[in-house]
Amino acid sequence: MAVRNEKPGKMDCRVKPPLKDRPLMSSLQAEGLAAVFKVLANDTRLRLLHALVRADELCVTDLAASVGMKPQAVSNQLQRLSDLGILASRREGNNVHYRLVDLCVRSLLDQGFCLMEEVSSRKKLRTRWECT
């Protein structure tokens, strides 16, 4: 279970035991994790999450402008992320503002960038070795 950190409303996954120390996940846990990854495995949603990490909180209109989409389309994607419980929203007049409340997602994005960059650099090295 995630533990609340010093910032109200934010969940912190860093206090959990390391993955190698956990028992092998059950089929039910694997299905749940696959469902989370399925929602996250969308380029638009990843860009929206990254925009929210960078800005802390944005309204739908600003998020739509940042990813070059219509606000209604962005709202639909944000709803999928909200259904996972990783986003929170607040209404201010006609605007709805979203923020990331699950710090595990921030860490996951950071690890994803790291993995993508490592894979890319290994591919470049492999290509150089094959050409020599």
Report a brief summary of the structure.
By secondary structure, the chain is an alpha+beta fold. The protein has helices spanning 27-40, 43-55, 60-67, 71-83, 103-131, and strands spanning 3-4, 11-12, 57-59, 87-92, 95-100.
What is the overall number of helices? Answer: 5
* Text of the CATH class of the domain at 26-102: Mainly Alpha
For the record, what is the CATH homologous superfamily label of the domain at 26-102? Answer: Winged helix-like DNA-binding domain superfamily/Winged helix DNA-binding domain
Distance between the termini: 51 Å
CATH fold-level name of the domain at 26-102: Arc Repressor Mutant, subunit A
Content-based structural category: alpha+beta
Tell me the Rg in angstroms. 18 Å
Overall spatial form: globular
CATH architecture of the domain at 26-102: Orthogonal Bundle
The number of strands is 5
Explained architecture:
- By secondary structure, the protein is of the alpha+beta class.
- The protein has a domain at 26-102: Arc Repressor Mutant, subunit A, CATH 1.10.10.
- Helix content is 58%, strand content 14%.
- The chain is built from five helices and five strands; from the N terminus they run ββααβααββα.
- The protein has helices at 27-40, 43-55, 60-67, 71-83, 103-131; strands spanning 3-4, 11-12, 57-59, 87-92, 95-100.
- A three-stranded antiparallel beta sheet has the order 3-5-4.
- β4 and β5 form a beta hairpin.
- Residues 1-8 have low confidence and may be disordered.
